[in-house]
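Write out this protein's structure.
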Amino acid sequence: MLVIVNTQAHAKALFAKIKDMEGGFHLSTLMCPLHRRRTLAEIKRRLKEGGPVRLVSTSLIEAGVDVDFPEVWRAATGLDAISQAGGRCDREGGPILGRVVVFAPAEVKLAKDVEALWGATRPVLRQFKENPNNLEPIRAYFKEVYWQRGREALDGAKVGSWVGILPAIKERAKELTFPFASIAEAFQLIEDYKEPVIVPWRADPEDRRAEKLLAAIESKPRPSGSDYRRLQQYTVSIRPEIRRDWLAWECSSRCIRRSGTRCSSLRICGDTIRGRGWTWTTRNCCRRGKRYFEWLPPAELVDVAYSIEAHFDLTEKATKEDTPAKHISMFNRRAASGQCFHQPCLGTREFPADFRLLAETEPLPDSELRDDQRNRDLGWMLYDIDFADGRTSRFFRARLTDGVLDVTRCLAEGEAA
């Protein structure tokens, strides 16, 4: 018997009640691929030999998994998923007709999106109860889904200040400055985005293949693609907030160099970004003649107000009428009224920047940081990439002083390559 439910928590709760029964199995995406393959192989062997199989699974088994059960129970969901679940029942056309049962869980509340799909499914099942898997009921189901969700649900991605990808493109059509990067970030084919972690799963107590593979990758200055492909079979995807919280806790307690020794400077960086968006980068360092990698958790700066100081240098094309005073006066007049030939941007035109001219004697705006955040060591920050020197990355020690990061003063303290 196969039972397919909508959530990992529901699958875990059901499996807890049957795990001691003969043939009790569980499948979910919280199991690494190697673990799932081993479990499926054992399930198929038992089914082929006619042994008892009681499998509780999430919807992952509906995605092309070749198994054949005489009876399948599917928790309430959309008709498309129910049809996929039915494909795991009597798949090979046995002598006894299979049975598919759709049930509404009594102790588990359906998620809002699943409830909407189930609401569109029920009238279709009542109308086409003889054969709900034909083209006509499928068409009726999706027509009902789109009618319930409305036009906005089909294009509801937020692109900058616009709601919808098509409105964002239409707004920029005249200027041909389409926000491609923002669209790519907003559009998600799979809305429930997850991030990978490595689980060193063991097939038995003596299995150390995952640990050996991790150790081999750690010891290499540049792991091969083959190493990473082998590591994929131990990968599990989890929600970003869970991964973020785990990394924040782990790195706030200890940040470790590739050589395995404690690095107190990195622990400061870990404390700096506790609870923020986490990413991982590597920096190729050389100290005391020994080359190694450090894994750096960089701080994410948000709502930054940039103060830019500039001056004029006259070129050889300047005439007698071209004086610094003339150009400064022209610049100040236009900047004060918000005029510009091209809209200032942060890196690309997709990230336009608002600006305001500060008078020469006007102080910088006050920082909005809390008092306990105004004076901090943010660790090493990328300053520039020297393409003439083999694309060498150059870093500077970023320090906040009274809420201001003065790059000039920080560069005066020295750089690191």
